[in-house]
Every structure is written in C-alpha cells, then in structure tokens.
Amino acid sequence: MNDNAPASHSRQSRTPEDSAVPPPRTLRPALPPLTYVPLGRQPLRRLPQLLVGLALYGFSLAFMVRAAWGMNPWSVLYQGLERRTPLSFGTISALLGVLVLLLWIPLKQKPTFGTVANIVVLAYTSDLGISLIPPHPGIPARVGLLVGGILLNGFSVAVYVGARLGPGPRDGLMTGASASTGRSIRLVRTLIEISVLTAGWLLGGSVGVGTVLYALTVGSITQFLLPSFAYRDGSADSRTPRPRRRLRRAPGNHP
After folding, report:
1. How far is CA 218 from the centre of its chain?
2. Which residues contact 27 (CB under 8 A, 6 or more apart)?
3. Is the model's pLDDT at 252 over the cut of 90?
4. pLDDT at 14
5. Rounded to two decimals, what is the model's pTM?
6. What is the 3-state secondary structure of the chain?
C-alpha cells in the first residue's frame, strides 16, 4: 500500500496549469492592430510596401475594367459617374476618395500620410493600367484579367494596409468599421462592397459575374493575407490586451 502512495499523491497534486489544453499550433502569424504607426519607424521597410501595394491596387482596378466581365463595386460606381460626367475614371476615384473621408468622422478615423498617398497613387496607376492594357482582348485573356484582378486587389490591400501608414479613404471605412463594431474584416468588407455595388449599378455602371465574385471574395482574400504583411511594432503592439486562455481544471480539484 505504501508503495502506491507517492504515485497517488503525485496525481492529486497536479495544478490546473499542468492539465491546461495547449493552444493549437498555426503556421500563420496573428493579426496585430491595424492602427497607424508613425513613418519614422522603419521607413525604408514600410514606405516601399505602401507605394508598391497602392500601385498594384491601381493596376488591379485596370485589370477588371479590361476584363469587361464586371468590375469591382467601387469601379462600378466610378464608371457610373464617368458616364454622367466629363471626368476621367482616375479623377473620379480621387474625388470620391476625398468625399468618403467624411464618413470617417463617426468612426474616429484620421487621415494620414497613407491616406493622401492612396488618393494620388490610385488616380494615376488606374489610368496608366487602362492605357497600357488593350481593350477587347480575347476570352482567355479576359478570364486571366478577371481572376488576376480579384486576387491582385485582395493582395494589394493586405500589402498597403499592412504597412500601417494609414488606410485609404475606402479601406479606412473597412478598418474603422471593423474596429468599432468588433466584426471581422471579411464581413465588414463584404457589406461595404455590396452597398457600393448597388449604388454603382443604379448609376449605370457595368455589373457582371466578376463584380459579384469580387464582392463575395475580396474580403476573405484580404483577411487571409493581412497577417503575413502587417507591420508589427513591438513597443505599441505589446501593450495591446491579449485574450486570456481558459484553463481546464483537473477532475477532482475543484475548490
């Protein structure tokens, strides 16, 4: 009987931490806060990331325009306004970007360097992309432009928003609404795209299968890629509260 006592005592003396379920292992990093980080912190890493992401964003819009199977919802809105005004596609993009900033007020968002860069770079790169890609390509090229445009758009948003130099007017709605409501980037982005799509369609913008595909998928693409490109600021992010992991108590050790 005494030979078994140490083993029995050892089983009864285990703490709750000993029986805690380890967290699942993941290959993807967690998403840090997407709040603004001053440009002075690692500018040689973050400024190129911002500009490259914005340039790719502009070209992704041009891809979908030339695919002619339905553009992304914001481009549908730009096209609808383009048909009713003498302004170019890129100019309308810039002007609407300024107007959308007014919607930031209730979300307590503030324009930053990245916001201004977004308005300027997208206006030029979207017009440049449209001028470089010939109109009326063949069906295989249109399929490639459509799929590539959707994937490139979600990728570019993750790249430039991940630089944390401030989102553009449109993506500021996404990050601001996500932060204020606690909803996922995927859900918030999808709801915004559907709303903008409806407005663009009513103005006469072209809506097609690509438009619907974009509206339903770009939020998921962006949310999936953001953790890989989001800049991590050790001093600020370390102060962000982390959710506590619940521990499972060992049977028979309840107080």
Report:
1. 8
2. none
3. no
4. 52
5. 0.69
6. CHHHHHHHHHHHCCCHHHHCCCCCCCCCCCCCCCCCCCCCCCHHHHHHHHHHHHHHHHHHHHHHHHHCCCCCHHHHHHHHHHCCCCCCHHHHHHHHHHHHHHHHHHHCCCCCHHHHHHHHHHHHHHHHHHHHCCCCCCHHHHHHHHHHHHHHHHHHHHHHHHCCCCCCHHHHHHHHHHHHHCCCHHHHHHHHHHHHHHHHHHCCCCCCHHHHHHHHHHHHHHHHHHHHHCCCCHHHHCCCCCCCCCCCCCCCCCC
Residue 153, token pair as written in the block: 């758009």
Contact partners, residue 119, CB within 8 Å, separation at least 6:
94, 97, 98, 168, 169
C-alpha to C-alpha distances, 97 to 169, 172, 191, 219, 229, nearest whole angstrom:
5, 10, 18, 19, 24
Cα separation, 224 vs 31, in Å, equals 10
68 vs 38, 72, 195, 215, CA distance in Å? 40, 11, 21, 16
CB 87 within 8 A of CB 208: no
Tokens in use for 216?
A: 């339903």
The whole-number average pLDDT for the span 209-228 is 89
Q: Residue 253 has which token pair? A: 């050790």
pLDDT digits (tens, 9 = 90+) for 118-141: 878 988 898 899 999 998 889 999
